[in-house]
Design a protein that fits this description.
Order of helices and strands: HHHHH
Distance between the termini: 29 Å
Strand content: under 5%
Number of strands: 0
Largest sheet: none
Shape: elongated
Structural class: mainly alpha
Helix content: 55-70%
Number of helices: 5
Length: 75
């Protein structure tokens, strides 16, 4: 989200970080929702789902791993 605000909407990195940090969001739960959406349309290995969430959707590795665990993706 920070990168989108910075690169697309042309906020400074500090402005973008401040905006995202001020949100009252449980990012782990958002990662779970994203993982569930991804799994509706495609199958993923645990590693593949974590990579999708982390590298493409920009969740932290911890958030992505949490989502993979919560959605039951094991291998």
């Amino acid at each position: 989200m920070i990168e989108q605000l910075y690169e697309i909407h042309e906020y400074t990195k500090d402005e973008a970080k401040t905006a995202v940090d001020s949100l009252d969001v449980d990012w782990k739960e958002q990662a779970v929702k994203s993982a569930e959406d991804n799994l509706r349309y495609s199958s993923y290995s645990r590693k593949g789902l974590i990579e999708q969430l982390h590298e493409i959707q920009e969740y932290t590795k911890d958030e992505a791993a949490y989502a993979a665990e919560k959605t039951g993706v094991c291998s």
